[in-house]
């Protein structure tokens, strides 16, 4: 069954988006080119002859995720749905972007209905043209505080995308301008730190966002990341032991010792682990071993599919090796449709599903787009415990990356101050460990550290402390689990 947006039965019918999974892609063709024959969907049974169809060139046989928009009467809104179809199948629009665009376009059409406007009619004064009318409704939301400028700009970009598609592929010619574009040149630093000039095109539909003044409260690295203080790092680990969830504990340990993004952390596989290293008696248990990410022979995902090698301490490799050979993990893996041991996810729920489904595996898990929602929910439990001692504490999983970064700076800052390493070498070390392309992002970590010199703790010292703490508490945790009653059916994933 397609997933539809919720709608109160008492409300009047509205435009709404519908999600489709695993859609077969085809187009009409000549009989001699046919790979199948299709009966018209609107024909009476046995009344119409089937017509020939073939796969769409340069497209897969199936689309894992598509979105269409239904009109209030339940019929398909053709313009919006065809735009989304081509954006996904031909332009490669991601599932999340398509979901947002479908919702934005449904909202746009509902606003047109409310205003009594035809979305293709650009006659009359500017205030009554569909694009400007929609902007006015969004401005009201911003002024009331219901929506942010960034959110409303995204909605406008979705609408502009559809209109650009109409003008370039459907010969749509509005009688008056849909918006006014302006071009300006701006200077920026490229990923190597060199000054470059680029042209930026903007329109009079979008809302200008005032540039925020950085106050040193966060690091911008794929989001606003807030490093966890040295005191709170210990409290988070203690809270994880108190909650007694091995998967959640190990996810946090991996994040704090590697700086991995959540996407990479949660798509680690059995063959990511180096075996035979890092046990308690290994003199090299703090040595680093690489994990291949996003390479052709690796199923581990990375942001923008960037090939990289992430370094992980030997003792963490050992703990993951012990975990995947535990009865707990084996029971979960037995429920997974992945049968090749080397490709099995390390982090699975009790039902055998990954906490984050890699794009290449979506077909194995009913085309799920799960991206770590269970872990985000679990973090709330950690926050509740830490708040017993620190009422203002808060964190997100991505903050583990920032915490690793500032801890790593603390680990090397002494060498820089003693002249054994210069600032460029320190930045290069940090950039490589975090697998960053843009040196400007790396510099934000150093700037944050300089503004908060007492926040971090040396990464090497932290890992020694963490490893000792984990080994001690894991023993206690196993003793507690041995005395627990078995989980009840339908309970939470602990």
**Shape type:** globular
Order of helices and strands: EEEEEEHHHHEEEEHHHEEHHHHHHH
Radius of gyration from the alpha-carbon trace, in angstroms: 27 Å
What structural category characterises the helix and strand content?
A: alpha+beta
Task: Describe the secondary structure blueprint for this structure.
Blueprint: E1 3-4, E2 16-24, E3 27-28, E4 36-38, E5 51-54, E6 62-70, H1 78-89, H2 95-115, H3 130-144, H4 149-169, E7 181-189, E8 195-203, E9 219-220, E10 224-225, H5 230-243, H6 246-258, H7 262-265, E11 288-293, E12 308-313, H8 314-324, H9 327-334, H10 373-386, H11 399-417, H12 423-433, H13 439-451, H14 459-482
Antiparallel strand pairs: 1-2, 2-6, 3-5, 4-5, 7-8, 9-10, 11-12
InterPro entries: DNA_brk_join_enz (IPR011010), Integrase-like_cat_sf (IPR013762)
GO biological process, one term: DNA recombination
Biased composition (Pro residues): 484-494
Features:
13% strand; hpI Integrase, Chain A; globular; three-stranded antiparallel beta sheet; alpha+beta; single chain; 3 domains; 494 residues
Characterize the structure shown:
This protein is an alpha+beta fold. The protein has 14 helices and twelve strands. It folds into three domains: 3-169, no CATH class; 181-219, no CATH class; 220-482, Intergrase catalytic core (hpI Integrase, Chain A). It is 40% helix and 13% strand. The strands form five sheets. It has a three-stranded antiparallel beta sheet. It has a three-stranded antiparallel beta sheet with strand order 3-5-4, with no helix packed on it. A two-stranded antiparallel ribbon has the order 7-8. Helix 3 (130-144) packs antiparallel against helix 4 and helix 6 runs antiparallel to helix 8.
